[in-house]
Amino acid sequence: MATSDFDQFVEQYHLALDEFFRGNPEPVEQLYSHREDASLANPFGPVASGWKQIAETIGRAASNYSEGEATGFDRAAKYVTPDLAYIVEVERFKAKVGGSEEIASGALRVTSILRSEDGAWRIVHRHADPITTVRPAESVIQK
User: Fold this and answer.
1) CB 126 within 8 A of CB 40
2) Residue 116, CB half-sphere, CA atoms under 13 Å: how many?
3) What is the dihedral of CA 81, 111, 96, 45, to 10 degrees?
4) Does any domain span residue 138?
5) What does pTM read for this prediction?
6) Which domain holds residue 31?
């Protein structure tokens, strides 16, 4: 697939994430691969594998946000082939999070792997976590 098709997909993905931060999972779900080898690792739980688990995880994650918006995407890396691509970004947002009545700003470090399926780009894996700054080595130790 052409790089321009990929760039259009990423623009659509960013618009879908804007909806996600409003609590609406559907636009992101539409962009995700429904194949069983797809996966999702988000900040709210373990890795989900296969479309059924992914759909449940996306819905549960979106329910943590309301009245929000995506406020920016800082690209760290991008690589595109005709069949497979990835982007690494810091996604910035504002939203009410976890039932809070206050709008808060947040940022997620995100790696998205995409592939061409039946002539269209689809998300095949997404990993998102809140680590956007340097942390001490001890931060990986579970207590």
Assistant:
1) yes
2) 11
3) 130
4) no
5) 0.93
6) 3-133
Where residue 2 falls among pLDDT bands split at 50, 70, 90? low
CATH number of the domain enclosing 46: 3.10.450.50
User: Which tokens is 73 given?
Assistant: 């995407």
**Is 79's pLDDT higher than 90?**
yes
Asked whether residue 140 is domain-assigned, the answer is no
Q: Is 71 among the domain residues?
A: yes
Task: State the total domains in the chain.
Answer: 1
Res. 70 pLDDT band, cuts 50 70 90: very high
Cβ-contact 51, 35 below 8 angstroms = yes
Which helix (H) or strand (E) segment holds residue 7: the answer is helix 3-20
- CA distance linking residue 32 with residue 37, whole number of Å: 11
> How far does Cα 2 stand from its chain's mean position?
22
Say if strands 84-97 and 103-117 run parallel, antiparallel, or are unpaired: antiparallel
